[in-house]
Design brief:
Chain lengths: 544, 327
């Protein structure tokens, strides 16, 4: 396949070949990124639809909109869809897939066919999950706690388990591809200390995906075996131990939080650097804090189990370790803030998401201190406080990061600009809607409202109504970008190669890039974020 | 019920104020951090917004700053950790002489039994000022016993006992929630805790038709199931003498030394083979499947009564297991 043809319309990865075959059999990381983009958007709106039904049910204290069993399935499938089919693949499989080879100056990922395989695994897993939904759904919570999941639930636990088992392998293969690519395929001169911080965070994420996900796979397989073949692993009446399940599950599922948030931090560093036109303050510390999060993240899992029946002393150990993992996250927030000092700051849509990310992630992180704190966790564990906390991290953090990144790299991905005014409006709606949805839940939680309640005592209603109102604003904020991104693919202003005046190899090639990314192999002779050498774009803010 | 202040539930136990104090400290600290960070961002965003002809100033970073903003938060975190650990330690260590209430969770109800023999469903009556220890297990899936007004929560597991304790300080009716998702009617597995003045509580106790204390029903079960033929109060039995063993270490055949607590007694009854005290033969039959959770609690309560002096606020229980040590 020839690439370097510059004609009236430059040949690029999008127009080089047409037809459904050229997409389904592609090994181009950029095309696979778009395949992922379409698939995870599909699942995002399914998960979002479940969330809206949950919020509507909770508008009134009585369980009146749906049946109790239906409600239980809604929150279970909302969690599983959003975590396993949206958040975990979101930034790595879409933006990471697109950008990792471009940022390190490679033609593709190390294993292009394995990359395609990972998308097919995701699609197989997703198809099984859709079958699981339409044949009745699953009601175990996203957490599959035993012995409920193995001996009591009469829903499609096996289908859901197998589906997520397969989705896990998709995630493992993506991680493997990134690790090998970052080690082996960097362009000449692209030393480790010249890597964009995006790559450092993506590398840390990949390590977690590689080491953590197999444990989830084993755990889910054991659940399926116990349920299908009556083995006694977790069910005490068959000689098993239900706490063993929780240890295994959280051994993956706590690090999984970092699979979701580290990539958002990756995006954050790039956006903040670009729109302050500065090198990130404390590059080494930000890079190393990603690695520290990946390492410490593996030794804090039992902070999900402080009231589960673990020993007093192990609770103390896991509490103190949880505080250690908070330090590198704090370092990142301080460094992004310090980067703004004496910067040249512009308020584009990606930067608005970046501001939003810092705000919401900071609040999510600070409320994490409450939950790591033994004395307070006993009261707020399994209440809406926890729900609010992890949505601040996983929606306020990870989804804001994802949307910010999508806007930032959209010119590179599509070759077109999105409408800036609409972009800013959507960013503000998401921020406002998010806070209105989830802030009341902190108060609800401390008031004592347990999570996963289909009906609730009437004194909790006012806060629940606020939350539901917020969720409708949030929904509009999420639908808008989908509409204008689709619109911009045809009608958006043609993007230049580097519309933001950004540093980084991905901006040195065409928008959209040619199939093999660079017309000639780049040689890196500069440090990361060399903004002093790059002219700022003529227009201060890129308007339509 | 939540009319005194809308931001937290009423404080009705001795521990609630401690938890709230730490919570308020954390809220204040978080608010301070948010205000500091957000103000800085706003100030920078205003002062350094992009202007024509003004370039950003490249600053490499500062190790001194990095160390400062790593070490100071870490120090604060350690204070929070210690403060939280102290509260947790206190919450997890029931005082001696606490009155015991046995709790069995099942889909979707709470069954509670007092030492005095009173049984309740989805309701727990306790007097003000008494230490109450909950000894809990589940008949099916994992549940969680949560009383927001007391700031206590403990998962309730099948196949073992978990414990929690509280001392109610304020009469009233408070929520009892199941906070671990347990199936269809998880949100219906709720009840209430009725905290009463001691006099009212006595009236309530005498009002119900109790069939004798929990230990006494354990006693009759003990004889019914034939336990008393081997477990005798002299040293002649084929099984160990159970008088005075509770709360003391026991040496096992396999070399381990374990503390005799509720969970140990439970395991010994359900699957004796794995917990043989040294010097005895593995001849005791397995009772797994033969005794239900409530019978099990009665047996455990009875065996405990052979050791524990009826004391403190627990009160009513008369001398341990009289008449049980039939020759």
């Amino acid at each position: 396949m020839a690439t370097v043809a510059i004609s009236a319309e430059r040949e690029n990865y999008l127009n080089q070949e047409y037809g459904i075959r050229s997409w389904l059999l592609t090994t181009d990381h950029k095309r696979i990124a778009l395949l992922y983009l379409a698939s995870i958007t599909f699942f995002f709106f399914i998960g979002g639809f479940f969330a809206l039904l949950i919020r509507l049910e909770l508008l009134t204290p009585a369980g009146d909109l749906v049946q109790a069993d239906t409600y239980n399935k809604l929150f279970s499938m909302h969690g599983q869809v959003m975590i396993f089919f949206f958040l975990i693949p979101s930034i790595p499989a879409v933006l990471g897939n697109f950008l990792v080879p471009l940022m390190v100056g490679a033609k593709d990922l190390a294993f292009p066919r394995i990359n395609l395989l990972s998308w097919y695994l995701y699609i197989i897993a997703g198809t099984i999950y859709i079958i699981c939904i339409v044949t009745g759904g699953v009601d175990t919570g996203w957490t599959f706690y035993t012995p409920f999941s193995t001996a009591f639930s009469n829903t499609k636990v096996i289908e859901a388990g197998i589906s997520i088992f397969i989705a896990g392998f998709s995630s493992i293969l993506t991680g493997l591809n990134f690790v090998v690519t970052i080690h082996r395929m960097r362009a000449p001169g692209m030393t480790w200390s010249r890597l964009p911080l995006f790559i450092w965070a993506m590398y840390a994420t990949s390590i977690i995906q590689l080491l953590g996900t197999p444990v989830l796979a084993i755990t889910l397989l054991l659940v399926v075996f116990e349920r299908a073949f009556n083995l006694g692993i977790f069910d005490p009446t068959r000689g098993g131990d239900p706490l063993l399940f929780q240890h295994l599950f959280w051994f993956y599922s706590h690090p999984a939080v970092y699979i979701m948030i580290l990539p958002a931090m990756a995006v954050e560093s790039e956006i903040v650097a670009c729109f302050t036109r500065k090198r990130i303050f404390g590059y080494n510390f930000v890079a190393m804090s990603s690695i520290a999060i990946a390492v410490f993240g593996f030794v804090v899992w039992a902070h999900h189990m402080f009231v589960a029946g673990i020993s007093l002393y192990s609770a103390l150990v896991f509490s103190i370790l949880s505080y250690l993992v908070a330090v590198p996250s704090a370092i990142k927030v301080f460094n992004w803030t310090a980067t703004m000092y004496k910067g040249s700051i512009s308020f584009t849509t990606p930067m608005l998401y970046a501001f939003g990310f810092i705000g919401l992630f900071t609040m999510g992180g600070l409320t994490g201190l409450f939950l790591a704190c033994l004395g307070v966790d006993v009261h707020v564990h399994d209440t809406y406080f926890v729900i609010a906390h992890f949505h601040y991290i996983m929606v306020g953090g990870a989804v804001m990061g994802y949307l910010g990144g999508l806007h930032f790299w959209w010119p590179k991905i599509s070759g077109r600009m999105y409408p800036e005014g609409w972009g800013r409006l959507a960013a503000l709606l998401v921020f406002a809607g998010f806070n209105l949805t989830f802030f009341p839940q902190f108060i609800l939680g401390y008031m004592g409202m347990p999570r996963r309640y289909w009906q609730y005592p009437p004194e909790f209603q006012v806060l629940n109504v606020l939350s539901t109102a917020g969720s409708t604003i949030l929904a509009i904020g999420y639908v808008l970008p989908m509409v204008y991104f689709l619109w911009s693919m045809r009608y958006g202003k043609i993007a230049s190669d580097n519309p933001w005046g950004a540093a980084g190899l991905e901006w040195k090639t065409a928008s959209p890039p040619p199939t093999f990314n660079f017309d000639e192999e780049p040689e890196v002779t500069w440090e990361a974020y060399n903004y002093e050498q790059i002219p700022a774009p003529a227009e201060v803010n890129v308007e339509r | 019920m939540f009319d005194n202040f809308p931001l937290w539930p009423v404080r009705a136990s001795a521990g609630a104020a401690n938890v709230d104090a730490l919570y308020i400290f954390l809220v204040a600290l978080s608010a301070l951090m948010c205000v500091a960070i957000f103000t800085m961002i706003l100030v920078f965003a205003t002062m350094y917004r992009r202007r024509r002809g003004v370039e950003a100033e490249q600053i490499e970073g500062s190790s001194a700053l990095e160390i400062t903003w790593s070490v100071i938060p870490l120090g604060i975190f350690m204070v929070i950790f210690l403060w939280g650990a102290v509260i947790y330690f206190h919450e997890r260590t029931p005082p001696r002489g606490a009155a015991e209430v046995y709790v069995v969770g099942k889909q979707w109800m709470w069954k509670l039994q007092h030492e005095e023999g009173q049984r309740e469903i989805n309701e727990l009556h306790v007097p003000v000022g008494r230490d109450v220890k909950l000894i809990m297990t589940s008949q099916d899936v994992i549940h969680s016993f949560y009383i927001p007004a007391f700031r206590i929560k403990q998962d309730v597991l099948p196949g073992r006992y978990t414990t929690a304790w509280f001392r109610a300080t304020r009469p009233g009716v408070y929520h009892l929630f199941c906070s671990q998702y347990c199936g269809t009617m998880h949100s219906g597995m709720i009840g209430q805790v009725v905290v009463m003045e001691p006099a009212q509580y006595q009236a309530w106790l005498s009002g119900g038709g109790s069939s004798g204390s929990l230990a006494a029903s354990g006693d009759s079960l003990f004889q019914q199931l034939g336990c008393s033929t081997c477990h005798r109060s002299d040293s002649q039995g084929r099984g160990p003498n159970l008088v005075g063993i509770f709360g003391k270490p026991v040496h096992l055949e396999d070399g381990r030394t374990v503390m005799v607590d509720e969970n140990y007694l439970r395991q010994c009854i359900l699957s004796p083979g794995t917990n043989i005290p040294s010097g005895f033969k593995p001849i005791m039959p397995v009772f797994q499947g033969l005794v239900g959770e409530e019978q099990l609690t009665a047996l455990v309560a009875y065996i405990k009564s052979l050791t524990l002096a009826p004391s403190g606020a627990a009160g009513k229980l008369t001398a341990a297991g009289t008449g049980s040590q039939n020759p």
